[in-house]
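Dear U.,

Please find below the material for section 3 of the report. The protein was modelled together with zinc ion; I have listed the sequence and SMILES used, followed by the predicted complex structure.
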Amino acid sequence: MPNATAFPPFWEGFSIVAIDAEAETLQVELKPAPLQVPRCGDCRQPCAAVHEYCIRHIRDLPMLGRPVRLRVHLRRLACGSCGRRAEWVSWLARHARLTRRLEEAVALWCARLPTQHVAELFGLHWGTVRRLEQHRLQAQLDALPRPQPRRLVMDEFALYKGHRYASVVLDAETRRVLWIGEGRSREAIRPFFKELGPAGCARIEAVAMDMNTAFDLEVRQHCPNARVVYDLFHVVAKYGREVIDRVRVDEANRLRHDKPARRVIKQARWLLLRNPENLRQPEQQIHLQELLSANQSLMTVYLMKAQLKALWTAASAWQWRTAWRQWLRHAQESQIPALMLFAKRLSSYWRGILSRVRWPMHTGQLEGINNRIKVIKRMAYGYRDSSFFFMKIKAAFPGNP
Ligand SMILES: [Zn+2]
């Protein structure tokens, strides 16, 4: 039978000598338990030679809703091998002002809540929480193996409000974020290739990216064996914006005297841009069917979207070429200006689309990563330094080899 009145062993090797529960903060004074020989903080060998005592104030997990502050009598030892060293304490890292369990709890919550919330939750200073998280992230990143990527994905995203951008490079096979930096120019991404080195650059076989970026010229300059592949996610997103949205708005304007029909089309944006397999409810599918059958142009651009996506899954170059020519012809014959213009612009990028047949890369990879970055960014108010934000992104995508 455990002794019901014994205090749980929160502080191994120490005894409580006083508790002050008067103030808002619970004060607990701890002294080394008698008859326990301390161990050297460096070599962990028992050492009975106590050089001096010193007092350290340490924060612990809140107890019963109240912050806890420990007043700990620590020993400095005269270790035979190491010299003067602080004693080893199982629940406290060297020089730490917080117990290990508090550090772990803070780290756990930092992955879910903004820094400021975590600071309030544990009654800690904002800067303390930030420093802890930075250490934890750096340790995680340092523990990763040296990457040897063969296929890359490059992308850009808006950094903050205003027009600042960041570029991100990831390993297409492991999904690890290899590099991230401010800007989206050729100069901005050059450090990545410098870090990779000539041998690493020569190993790169293919790089997936959006059309219309500065990345492709930089890739060609550094990676002699790399093919540029245009990513399906970006092309389809562009198609949604420039063709489907355009036709939908034009149709809504054309029907401005037919209020109910106009409203149906105006509200259909989500239905049209969604993947059909994501429309789970039967009434959404019926709604989509009705919408398309009532409107020829919408039907055309909707079907052309599916055929556009199919270009990324062609089984052979020959099959791809047939499908590509057919798609361009259908676009030209559609008499829909937005679609014709899109096809005209897309046609000059055919090499990067065909490359996809030879260098299949997981599409939707970037979509998932973009969404995660948005979530991290939303939690990131108060990240004044982008280096911390970049660390968080890197740590969120360590890759799965
Ligand atoms: Zn020692």
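For the text of the report, you could mention the following: The chain has 15 helices and ten strands.

Regards,
Y.
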